[in-house]
């Protein structure tokens, strides 16, 4: 039976996973050594007097309020109820029955599903029914529970409580109610006008109490116990508890211990040398409690670590400021103990998780600032109970897929004293609550960069104290409220990037305090008020771009003399540009592009002379208007600080303005698509900061100035469609920062200087087409390793095509057409794996037809027409579609698809030649065949054929290309990396539709066994569909841009990650940021078992997973478990005995893999035993 696999191996792995799910311990934890295994650890909890709750995951007994699961009916304080205990006992028993060492002793996966579903059903009922108990026997210790033929039949039954233990539980019950912690809970409940009796005991205990005590006696006893609790609380406060100062000192030391990196050594002085009130960042300022900490301020100290829960013990703390550090993990819920806390600032760290709901208990809070973190989830509505709050700043800088979501809680409108409400850069949805209008003290409201919808509520205009209102970058629509003018204190009004429409409300122009008015990228219409500059005289910034405004630009704009930025671009303004703009002494930016503004004569161009008075002007954007005539000479008088001039797509004529040379700080000069004539002046080479020179589409003539080679900062030189002549300056090779060089459509002549091809920074394109260039194409062209677009078409180039072109592996578009190239097409072009378009037409190329081009995976267009190629045209790949290639004008070609109408290839050979060929080739062919047969037989046993299974080639979804996956993952960036496994990496990606979020598993084919894992996973998931199995969307079998083999599988994206990350969070996730409740764990156990049951018993051919473990179980948005990673999966033949297995056949993960059968090879056995002992994982008889 060696080499055989079995479904019982999966049952064993499931049993181990079940035990880990409810104990929180991995089978490979260091504690399991010296013969102790996870199974024995659990078995030990069933011994006489032991408690199963003692080995359960501690997080099961925590309040689930902040994790979204209410376990209040299952938990009393920190003690498990009897129902919960019974549930844990039953589930762990199922796990033990699955994880038996011998396969025949294990239950089936179907039995496991049924039993756990029954356990969940019983848990949710009023009480667990009594059932027949049985005997359970474990190695080295026995526990009598009842009588049964099979130990695993007890998995659903509770155990009989011995009389002695019954008495002990009665004592514990009294202790629970009398303990100071319980008394504190009672006092807290009394404070909130709630008295709750929550006693969880076994069924027998509840029944005995109910039967033996009259109701009056029971109530009296309870009241006495409550009184006793209060007395014990007082006593413990005066006698048993440590002093307040010692409590604070201990808490501070715990804070220091949680800091893992202190580069400035701030915490070094937190020692016994100084009294803790003198430690840096600590203050004790309460005059009535001079040894109690009132302030903990460690902002901007470069500290790294987690926020210690012990901070909750600093009960006199009023100011907690940890901003601008590197704290990670979650915000500890223990903060809720700080009843005196006023200022809570954790801004600009790397904190994650959710905002604790219990924060609402800090009722004295005046300010909350969590800006610049990674906090997710909803904004707790209970923050509306912080009635003293003045500042609520939850604005976050970059949350990617982890932003705050949900609606803005209407309860925030209760916090009347609130002055600052900052929720920008999140993913908040819904409409703006009307209750925000109740925040009469609000000064600053920033809700920008969210996904809010609906209209702006008129109640916003009740905020008479509001100074800043920022609603930009949302999905708001409708009109701006007419009553907006009631915000008489408003200084900043920003509603850009929304869907607002209608005219600007007239009342808005009455807010004389306005300094910033941003309405860009909306659908606003109408005209601007003629007196806008008079009424809004304090304006510093006016941004009305990308709307539908019409009419003239009001002359009164120049009366708002404090204006620094004016952007009215992308509208329908017409008429003259106001000539009085020079009255704006602080003007730095003037953007009027994409309008219908006119300038025909000198009078219309007077605004240029006026702008000479604006000595701070840096940007002048006038492109895409109706400006015509000559540019006035006064352009020379413009501010020397001017860095950007854009005049493109107008009808400006005349020669190049000489005054430009005075603008020594120019970075961008765009004069494209005008009517300029004359030569390009040499003085441009003196503008040392010039980075972009765009002069295309004019009538410039003469030579390209050699002085342009002095512009070392130049990154864009676009001169196409002019009348330039002469040769290409060799000096351009010195512009090593160029990413775009376009000289096409001119009258350039001479050879192409090799220096041009030394510009390795050309990462956009190089276009020298449609000129009169001659000579050969230099071999240095192979140095363009970063250039995706290269065209030298329509010139007079000759010679052979350089083989070095094959080194340009980033090329996507190559056009050498309409030249005089000769010789054959170099085979090195087959290295251009990313090539999409290749045009070699209208040359003098000869030789055999380049059938190797069929191997270019992304080639979409191929033009080889009008050359002198010969040979047979293939009929596969790109040559199977006549719309994608052309071979017209090659009269020596034959074959090909029928639509080419080429003659059939001749097969006639003379008898003499045929005999000669046979004599020479037949022995060689025979030897080759024999050698190939030998190699095939040799490797057949070790390697499967490298092809996708039929399940994924017959009816699979449309496959994705390598480029599509590269785009979806942002070039497989580290930001999108989800995880790394044995055979590859998994990336998060967004497909071209922008909506489909997927997980992309990229195989590392260098890793031995990776391809087998790929095939196994495809075979396993190809035709199976189940809600608890990871769904495969498609595959990618291609090559990357460097020609290496590429394999990937595309799955549904599972947002909640793996079960591993929930059971064992990383240190930067904090335990309470990821927590599973009891019911969730039961559901996960059922889901996983259901998936295995489907694989084992409901597939056409049973499938064995072979590697079941928490990291291979994923949780979707509804916390539904999905089993994935079938890289080791095996198909089981119908004849296979399901109860026989061998570890030699099943490769899995240590700790989860079923034990194998004994081997006769003693040396191998000893080595394996030694290795297993060192790893400390398997704690049973090995091999």
From TrEMBL:
It comes from the Eukaryota. The chain crosses the membrane at residues 916-940. It is found in: Cell membrane. It is a single-pass type I membrane protein. Its main location: membrane. ATP binds at residue 1001. The keyword Transmembrane applies. This is non-specific serine/threonine protein kinase. It comes from Ensete ventricosum.
């Amino acid at each position: 039976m060696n080499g055989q696999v079995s479904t019982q191996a999966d049952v064993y792995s499931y049993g181990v996973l079940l035990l880990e799910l409810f104990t929180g311990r991995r089978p490979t934890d260091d504690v399991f050594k010296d013969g102790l295994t996870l199974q024995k650890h659990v078995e030990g909890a069933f011994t006489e007097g032991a408690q199963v709750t003692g080995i359960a995951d501690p997080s099961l007994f925590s309040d689930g309020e902040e994790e979204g699961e209410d376990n209040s009916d299952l938990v009393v304080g920190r003690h498990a109820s009897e129902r919960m205990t019974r549930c844990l006992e039953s589930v762990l028993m199922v796990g033990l029955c699955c994880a038996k060492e011998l396969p025949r002793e294990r239950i089936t996966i179907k039995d496991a599903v049924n039993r756990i579903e029954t356990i969940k059903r019983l848990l949710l009922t009023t009480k667990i029914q009594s059932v027949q108990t049985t005997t359970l026997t474990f190695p080295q210790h026995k526990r009598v529970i009842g009588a049964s033929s099979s130990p695993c039949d007890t998995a659903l039954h509770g155990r009989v409580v011995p009389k002695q233990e019954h008495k002990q539980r009665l004592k514990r019950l009294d202790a629970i109610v009398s303990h100071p912690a319980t008394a504190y809970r009672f006092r807290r409940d009394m404070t909130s006008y709630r008295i709750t009796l929550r006693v969880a005991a076994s069924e027998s205990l509840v029944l005995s109490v109910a039967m033996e005590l009259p109701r009056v006696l029971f109530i009296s006893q309870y009241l006495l116990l409550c009184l006793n609790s209060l007395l014990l609380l007082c006593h413990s406060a005066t006698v048993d508890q440590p002093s307040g100062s010692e409590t604070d000192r201990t808490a501070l030391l715990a804070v220091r211990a949680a800091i893992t990196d202190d580069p400035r050594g701030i915490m070094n002085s937190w020692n016994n040398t100084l009294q803790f009130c003198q430690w840096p960042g600590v203050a004790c300022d309460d005059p009535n409690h001079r040894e109690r900490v009132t302030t903990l301020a460690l902002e901007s100290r470069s500290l790294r670590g987690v926020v210690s829960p012990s901070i909750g013990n600093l009960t006199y703390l009023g100011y907690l400021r940890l901003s601008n550090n590197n704290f990670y993990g979650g915000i500890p819920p223990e903060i809720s103990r700080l009843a005196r806390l006023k200022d809570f600032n954790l801004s600009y760290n790397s904190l994650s998780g959710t905002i604790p709901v219990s924060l609402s208990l800090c009722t004295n809070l005046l300010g909350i600032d969590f800006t610049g973190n990674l906090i997710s989830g909803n904004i707790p509505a209970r923050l509306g109970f912080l009635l003293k709050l003045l500042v609520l700043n939850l604005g976050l800088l970059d949350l990617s897929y982890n932003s705050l979501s949900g609606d803005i809680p209407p309860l925030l409108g209760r916090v009347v004293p609130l002055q600052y409400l900052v929720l920008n850069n999140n993913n908040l949805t819904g409409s703006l609550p009307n209750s925000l209008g109740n925040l009469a003290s609000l000064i600053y409201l920033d809700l920008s960069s969210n996904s809010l919808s609906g209209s702006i509520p008129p109640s916003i205009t009740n905020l008479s104290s509001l100074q800043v209102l920022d609603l930009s970058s949302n999905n708001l629509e409708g009109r701006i409220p007419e009553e907006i003018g009631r915000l008489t204190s408003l200084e900043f009004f920003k509603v850009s990037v929304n869907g607002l429409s209608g005219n600007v409300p007239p009342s808005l122009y009455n807010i004389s305090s306005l300094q910033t008015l941003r309405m860009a990228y909306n659908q606003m219409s109408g005209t601007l008020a003629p007196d806008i500059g008079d009424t809004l005289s304090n304006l510093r910034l006016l941004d009305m771009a990308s709307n539908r405004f019409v009419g003239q630009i009001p002359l009164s704009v120049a009366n708002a003399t404090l204006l620094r930025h004016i952007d009215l671009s992308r509208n329908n303004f017409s008429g003259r540009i106001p000539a009085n703009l020079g009255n704006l002494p602080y003007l730095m930016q003037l953007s009027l592009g994409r309008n219908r503004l006119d300038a025909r004569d000198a009078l219309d161009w007077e605004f240029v002379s006026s702008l000479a008075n604006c000595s701070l002007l840096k940007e002048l954007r006038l492109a895409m208007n109706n400006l015509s005539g000559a540019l006035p000479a006064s352009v020379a008088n413009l501010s020397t600080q001017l860095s950007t001039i854009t005049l493109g797509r107008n009808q400006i004529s005349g020669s190049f303005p000489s005054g430009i040379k005075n603008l020594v700080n120019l970075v961008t000069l765009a004069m494209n698509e005008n009517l300029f004539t004359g030569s390009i002046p040499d003085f441009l080479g003196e503008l040392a900061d010039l980075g972009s020179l765009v002069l295309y589409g004019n009538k410039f003539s003469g030579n390209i100035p050699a002085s342009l080679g002095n512009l070392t900062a130049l990154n864009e030189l676009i001169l196409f469609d002019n009348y330039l002549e002469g040769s290409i300056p060799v000096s351009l090779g010195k512009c090593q920062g160029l990413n775009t060089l376009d000289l096409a459509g001119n009258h350039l002549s001479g050879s192409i200087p090799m220096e041009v091809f030394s510009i390795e920074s050309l990462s956009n394109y190089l276009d020298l087409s449609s000129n009169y260039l001659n000579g050969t194409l230099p071999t240095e062209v192979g140095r363009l390793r970063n250039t995706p677009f290269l065209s030298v078409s329509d010139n007079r180039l000759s010679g052979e095509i350089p083989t070095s072109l094959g080194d340009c592996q980033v090329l996507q578009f190559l056009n050498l057409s309409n030249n005089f190239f000769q010789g054959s097409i170099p085979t090195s072009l087959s290295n251009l794996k990313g090539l999409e378009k290749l045009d070699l037409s209208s040359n003098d190329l000869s030789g055999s037809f380049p059938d190797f081009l069929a191997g270019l995976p992304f080639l979409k267009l191929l033009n080889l027409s009008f050359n002198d190629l010969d040979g047979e045209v293939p009929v596969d790949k790109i040559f199977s579609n006549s719309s994608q290639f052309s071979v017209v004008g090659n009269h020596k070609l034959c074959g090909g698809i029928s639509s080419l109408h080429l003659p059939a290839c001749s097969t006639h050979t003379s008898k003499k030649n045929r005999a000669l060929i046979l004599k020479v080739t037949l022995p060689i062919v025979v030897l080759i065949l024999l050698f190939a047969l030998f190699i095939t037989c040799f490797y057949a046993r070790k390697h499967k054929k490298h092809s996708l299974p039929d399940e994924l080639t017959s009816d699979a979804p449309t496959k994705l290309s390598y480029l599509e996956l590269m785009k979806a993952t942002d070039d497989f960036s580290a930001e999108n990396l989800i995880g790394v496994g044995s055979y590859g990496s998994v990336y998060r990606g967004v497909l071209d539709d922008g909506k489909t979020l997927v997980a992309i598993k990229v195989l590392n084919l260098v890793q031995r066994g990776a391809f087998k894992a790929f095939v196994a996973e495809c075979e396993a998931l190809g035709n199976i569909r189940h809600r608890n199995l990871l769904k495969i969307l498609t595959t990618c079998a291609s090559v990357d841009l460097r020609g290496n083999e590429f394999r990937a599988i595309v799955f549904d994206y599972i947002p909640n990650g793996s079960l591993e990350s929930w059971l064992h969070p990383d240190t930067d996730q904090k335990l309470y940021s990821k927590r599973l409740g009891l019911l969730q764990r039961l559901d996960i156990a059922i889901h996983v078992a259901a998936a295995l049951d489907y694989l084992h018993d409901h597939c056409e051919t049973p499938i064995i997973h072979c590697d079941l473990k928490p990291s291979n179980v994923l949780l979707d948005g509804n916390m539904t478990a999905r089993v994935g990673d079938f890289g080791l999966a095996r198909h089981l033949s119908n004849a296979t005995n399901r109860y026989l297995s061998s570890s030699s056949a099943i490769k899995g993960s240590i700790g989860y893999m079923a034990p194998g059968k004994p081997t006769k090879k003693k040396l191998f056995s000893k080595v394996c035993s030694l290795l297993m002992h060192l790893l400390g994982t398997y704690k049973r008889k090995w091999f």
